[in-house]
């Protein structure tokens, strides 16, 4: 009976324990609910660190505890790190307790989630060594903190291109200011970024603020990132006028996402004028040029104005074209125009007047940011000075084009070596996507580039190319190889079967 009584008591105790556990697991307290609600809220990156109250002067051997708060209170990163720049002056542990070690100055840093706050700590000899009171006293030898009043920036550019990098230099003023550490940031890293060394990189077109901070002072600089101009298309490459004639220029900037704003300027205002919207007017006999510029490049068109009274319709018009050809291409005037262009400028001429880009022209362009565009009815060729490798490889601007079943076959420079990389744009209703170069050793085409729009591509190797809308398939060759391989494998299996299983056939 005693044994049964003890057994019943043990079972009752076990039931009570299990019931208590179940109730606790299924019915959390109100405090638990509140904590769960608080921790389930949205989180945010660290915006600032409040250092609270702290002493900037301490005696050797003394300690103080930093009570810091990471803001906002619902930040994702709550880990706080402490650091002393000179541990022989003062140390700081992982809890923020500072211990003064020896006289001198050190910088105490508090970091969390990419944000850092600092202050300078001065350590003096203890009162037991100097006979002074416990409280730090400012003496004539004490160095007061000097506030930052400005940050001087050099090499900063208001406008840069996408993918362009710029290194800026920042200087804290005055030079003896206490906070000499400069922190850089970007208001929109999707438009431009800046690293800790001051290198700015353009990411995409847009406007952004670049911020430099030091000692509580901030300097904000507005930066615009733009897509670089690749080409300027003009409805006329040269103009032959009589006094009083007018012509409306039409300009298209490529690529489409580039800044479409252009400006016009006449190099001979007494001979030809041009309005803000591109209306050209002949004023008096002579020759001149119109410079058409975007924010980052320029092109020049040549103008000839004939005397209206001495005009002979057929003869004068033909002579004028010859004069333009001599002025723009084969004469020294083209070289002079190239030489007089801005460093990043460009000039466009008609293909009929520049069938050969001579060594003299290549030499004038070589190693510069200038460019020359030769326009034909079906295509244009652009040469940048920076892309020229050999000035002795003169360029025949007439490209041989043949339509085949696969696409458009192209032979540039009559198959001779190119002076460097050249950029070709086709004015074709077909939209090509793939560029192949014929490999003579393999007797097949090898894909070297893909492009998506504008039918623009670049080549730097002499040879025969083909442009296609779809990839060139070698499926027939591949299937032929597969079929041969299957036949050989099958034949091998049959021979192995006969040798192993039917060897008595040969007895």
Offer a few descriptive terms:
Immunoglobulin-like; 7 helices; 4 domains; 5-stranded mixed sheet; 507 residues; 5-stranded antiparallel sheet; alpha+beta; 20% helix
Set down the secondary structure blueprint.
Blueprint: H1 2-26, H2 30-39, E1 48-50, E2 57-59, E3 63-65, E4 69-71, E5 81-84, E6 90-92, E7 97-100, E8 104-112, E9 115-124, H3 127-130, E10 150-154, E11 159-161, E12 165-167, E13 169-173, E14 183-186, E15 192-194, E16 199-202, E17 206-214, E18 217-226, E19 231-234, E20 238-242, E21 246-248, E22 251-254, E23 263-266, E24 272-274, E25 279-282, E26 286-293, E27 298-306, H4 313-330, H5 332-340, E28 346-350, E29 356-357, H6 359-365, E30 371-375, E31 379-384, E32 395-396, E33 400-403, E34 408-411, E35 422-426, E36 434-439, E37 444-450, E38 456-459, E39 464-468, H7 475-501
Parallel strand pairs: 2-9, 11-18, 20-27, 28-30
Antiparallel strand pairs: 1-4, 3-7, 5-8, 6-7, 8-9, 10-13, 12-16, 14-17, 15-16, 17-18, 19-22, 21-25, 23-26, 24-25, 26-27, 29-32, 30-31, 31-35, 33-34, 34-39, 35-38, 36-37, 36-39
């Amino acid at each position: 009976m005693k044994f049964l009584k003890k057994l019943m008591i043990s079972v009752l105790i076990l039931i009570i324990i299990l019931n208590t556990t179940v109730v606790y697991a299924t019915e959390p307290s109100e405090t638990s609910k509140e904590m769960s609600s608080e921790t389930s809220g949205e989180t945010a990156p660290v915006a600032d660190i409040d250092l609270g109250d702290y002493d900037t002067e301490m005696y050797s051997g003394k300690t103080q505890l930093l009570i810091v708060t990471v803001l906002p209170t619902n930040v994702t990163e709550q880990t706080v790190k402490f650091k002393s720049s000179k541990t022989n002056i003062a140390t700081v542990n992982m809890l923020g307790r500072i211990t003064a070690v020896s006289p001198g100055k050190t910088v105490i840093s508090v970091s969390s989630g990419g944000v850092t706050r600092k202050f300078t700590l001065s350590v003096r000899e203890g009162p037991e060594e100097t006979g002074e009171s416990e409280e730090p006293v400012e003496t004539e030898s004490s160095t007061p903190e000097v506030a930052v009043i400005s940050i001087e920036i050099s090499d900063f550019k208001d406008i840069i291109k996408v993918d362009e990098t710029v290194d800026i230099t920042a200087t804290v003023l005055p030079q003896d200011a206490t906070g000499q550490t400069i922190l850089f940031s970007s208001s929109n890293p999707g438009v431009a970024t800046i690293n800790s060394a001051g290198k700015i990189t353009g990411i995409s077109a847009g406007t952004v603020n670049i911020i430099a901070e030091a000692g509580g002072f901030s300097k904000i600089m507005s930066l615009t990132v733009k897509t670089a101009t690749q080409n300027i298309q003009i409805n006329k490459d040269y103009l032959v006028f009589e006094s009083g004639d007018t012509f409306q220029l039409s300009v298209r900037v490529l690529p489409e996402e580039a800044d479409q704003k252009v400006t016009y300027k006449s190099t001979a205002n007494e001979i030809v004028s041009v309005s803000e919207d591109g209306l050209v007017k002949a004023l008096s006999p002579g020759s001149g040029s119109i410079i058409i510029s975007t924010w980052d490049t320029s092109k020049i068109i040549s103008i000839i104005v004939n005397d209206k009274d001495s005009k002979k319709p057929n003869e004068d018009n033909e002579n004028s074209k010859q004069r333009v050809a001599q002025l723009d291409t084969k004469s020294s005037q083209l070289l002079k125009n190239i030489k007089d262009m801005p460093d990043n400028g460009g000039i466009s001429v008609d293909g009929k007047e520049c069938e050969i880009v001579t060594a003299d022209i290549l030499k004038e362009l070589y190693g510069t940011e200038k460019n020359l565009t030769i326009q034909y009815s079906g295509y244009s060729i652009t040469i940048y000075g920076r892309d020229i490798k050999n000035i002795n490889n003169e360029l025949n601007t007439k490209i041989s084009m043949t339509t085949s079943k696969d696409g458009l076959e192209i032979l540039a420079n009559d198959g001779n070596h190119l002076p460097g990389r050249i950029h070709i744009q086709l004015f074709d209703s077909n939209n090509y996507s793939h560029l192949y170069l014929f490999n003579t050793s393999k007797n097949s085409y090898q894909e070297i580039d893909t492009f998506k729009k504008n039918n623009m591509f670049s080549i730097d190797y002499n040879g025969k190319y083909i442009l296609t809308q779809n990839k060139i398939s070698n499926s027939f060759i591949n299937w032929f190889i597969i079929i041969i391989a299957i036949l050989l494998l099958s034949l091998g299996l049959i021979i192995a079967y006969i040798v192993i299983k039917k060897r008595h056939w040969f007895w």
